[in-house]
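Hi there,

I know you've been waiting on this one. I reran it after we fixed the sequence typo, so this is the corrected version. Both the input and the resulting structure follow.
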Amino acid sequence: MMKHRGFPSRLPGTDYQFTIRRPNPKGVTPIVERERYRDRKSADKRADNGFVRALMEQFWDQPFERGNLDAGRLSWLFGREVKAYEDEFDAKSYEAKLILDLNLIKINFPETFDSDQRG
């Protein structure tokens, strides 16, 4: 399992996890599409925003391996802002390739695009 060095392990000041320390011995947690409802708690929305910002700072428009990124956190974005990069995507693989949809991020998370970001 690839460990993304320099990627924040959690949202500062919270228990919202962004990465995992080691592979799950019971098997890889699959990435699934989760519905984001409008009435989600503001803390959940801040976690999504922080995770999207960290993904953009680390990967921008380049494909990346799932590695030690938390499946639960990815699932809130999967199928929208985070997409499968390969046709043969395996949701239960730490080696699965993903890519950010920067156009959709700009629409759904406009605050992540500020003056010191690329693009």
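Quick highlight: The longest strand covers residues 97-100.

Best,
R. S.
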